[in-house]
Amino acid sequence: MSGVGFGRPLAHDSVLHRRNPTVKLAVLLVVSTVLLAVVDPWTPLALWVLALVAVARAGRIPWRLLLRAQLLFGPFAVSILAVNCVTRDGPVVGALGPFEVTGPGLAIGLSLMLRTLLVGTLSVAFVLTTDGARLMTSLHQHVRLGARPTYAVLAGYRMLEQLPERWTTIRLAQAAREPARARRQGSAPAWLRAARTGRGLPDDAARQDDAAPREWRARRGGGTRLPVSPRALARAAFTLLVVTLRQGERMAVAMETRGLGAGPRTVHAPVTLDRRDAAFAAVTVGVCVAVIVAAARLGVLASWGSTFG
Amino acid sequence: MSAPAAPTGSGATGPAPTGPTTAGPATAGPTTAQRRRGLTLQELVLVAALGVVFGFLYWALVQAWAWLQLAMGPLGDLAQHVLIGGWMVVAPLALYIVRKPGVGIVAELLAATIEVVFIGSPVGPMLLLVGFVQGAGAELAFTATRYRRYGWGVFVASGVTAALASLALGTVRFGWLTQDWFAYRVGLELVSGIVLSGILAKVLGDALLRTGVLDNHAIGRAARAARRGDGGDPGAAPAPAPQQAGA
Predict the structure, then answer these.
(1) Number of CB pairs < 8 Å for A and B?
(2) What keywords appear on the UniProt entry (chain A) (predicted)?
């Protein structure tokens, strides 16, 4: 997972990788909108299982990665289940601590939980199979997104890629400069003391043989020794904001000096949109509709306030 | 950025000469673009940068918060109302900096887009709608002042309108009205909207202004105009941007 960065797709090729990003986004949008109306647990359960198998096959996404994603969304999903269980009126079917669990609460909670997992799975599949730059190019080409918004988001995409690294840099720099923390830990390492006082750095560093590199390696590797107080994190977050805004300003000036937005543009690497994308959209939405129709036939489909079938 | 900042900071909103022209070959566009109602590229990139940082911070926050939410059991769902303001803060902040109609909505939409299509979210594309509604809610208070007043009262009002808009959407999405705790949800969300969205946006904006990074934006121009005495005629004496913006 460490190789997967923000907005970077998995490095391999697959059916999902090759599909048009705009079409993929539209399908994701349609499916999650349709599901808003469904509140029985069975329909989202069936779709979730189908989606897991489908993205694992068509996107060649490793199961380990999919499982991790489910765990990531898990707490969010379970808490939705828990709150719905205990806050809805209806016949009581059990107890959760001091709270009574109702039948309708359990059903709606399960439904919303499975919907969260389903939409989460589809979103992760989208992110893992879609290149950010290709998505923006496609939106520019196929949805006529203006050049300036397109390139603004692309600039943002570039900033996002560098963000984790930038965050680490800021955290390391602040930790190295914070005297209070070093004092708390007894004596600061000699190289750090020397760096602060500005005296005796070469000699001390020489005597300490490679203490400094080892110290840095420890910080880089584990990261456990960085201060985690809310204050330290807030300071780092604010610095991250300032640094990124400054970078954004530089990028904007660079783009303006190159005449971006001054006239009609051509696209460097056009994204294709063909019959296979239409087939993909038809199959995906078709399966979704088929499951809902099947659920209605079986009499398990439910929506807010009513049950069909 | 070693070159002097592009003359976007000239504050030429009136029929004044076009900026200080200290940076000879730099872009000539901004002075005309500035007068347009739409956003300049510089402003769009600023909003995108805000969206990126807040998208990333939200994502990091969610990782930590999800487990807390689980630990709180059934009450965990209420935790979102405590934190909801934090998710909306980017809209009033962007409005405070850029001061143009629609910026709040654009900022929320961009932050949501970045979360959905680049980071991945369990909420999915629905987050775009959430962002739109929250942005529109937060912007309402500023629209009421015709984007002219940026005092504490407006930010508090913005927190209230954002919280109400977000509540309305949540009620539709999750059926909160038929749950038992609706009054708690309303109360928590209003407090969170005022503190974490409205007031925090003003605090953040003022802190960012002090760093000098916003000198070339409307907020920096307004601050310079205020420092000169009155903000009545900002076009009368276009001052060059202070140079601490570079570094």
Answers:
(1) 211
(2) Cell membrane, Membrane, Transmembrane, Transmembrane helix
Domain that holds residue A170: 147-257
Q: What is the dihedral of CA B62, B67, B73, B75, to 10 degrees?
A: -30
CB contact under 8 A, A253 and B27: yes
Length of chain A: 309
Which residues in chain B have their CB less than 8 angstroms from residue A108's CB? 175
Q: Are residues A79 and A24 in the same domain?
A: yes
| Residues A126, A151 within the same domain | no
Q: Name the amino acid, one letter, at A304.
A: W
CB contact under 8 A, B116 and A123: yes
Q: Beta strands of chain B (E only): which ranges?
A: none
Contacts of A25 in chain B (CB under 8 A): 117, 125
User: What pLDDT score does A169 carry?
Assistant: 92
Its pTM surpasses 0.90 = no
pLDDT band for position A103 (cuts 50, 70, 90) = confident
Instruction: Give chain B's domain count.
Output: 1
Residue B174 lies in a domain: yes
Do residues A105 and A169 share a domain? no
Predicted pLDDT of residue A258: 86
Out of A135, A163, A255, name the one closest to residue B41 (CB). A255
Q: Nearest by CB to A156, which of B48, B73, B216? A: B48
Contact A129, A60 (CB under 8 A): no
Residue B128 forms part of a structural domain: yes
Token duo for residue B105 = 């909505």
- Tell which of A79, A102, A106, A162 to mutate to test the B interface (max B CBs under 10 Å): A79
Structure tokens at A168: 């680490």
pLDDT digits (tens, 9 = 90+) for B1-58: 344 444 443 333 334 444 443 333 434 444 444 445 688 889 999 999 998 888 887 7
**Closest to A152 measured CA to CA, from A230, A266, A233, A248:** A248
Identity of the highest mean pLDDT range in A39-53, A77-91, B1-15, B221-235: A39-53
- Domain span at B133: 38-215
**Chain B 10-69, CB below 8 Å of chain A: which residues?**
26-27, 29-30, 39, 41-42, 44-53, 55-57, 62-63, 66-67, 69
Residue to mutate among A115, A253, A288, A303, with most B CBs inside 10 A, is A253
Exposed / middle / buried, residue B210 (Cβ in 10 Å: 0-12, 13-18, 19+): exposed
Q: Specify the range with the lowest mean pLDDT, choosing from A21-30, B107-116, B155-164.
A: B107-116
Interchain CB distance below 8 Å, A249 and B245 = yes
State the Cα–Cα distance between residues B47 and B131, nearest whole angstrom.
Answer: 14
Question: Nearest CB to A242: which of B74, B175, B213?
Answer: B213
Q: What is the pLDDT of residues A253-269, one digit of tens each?
A: 999 888 876 777 788 88
Domain match, A181 and A208 both:
yes
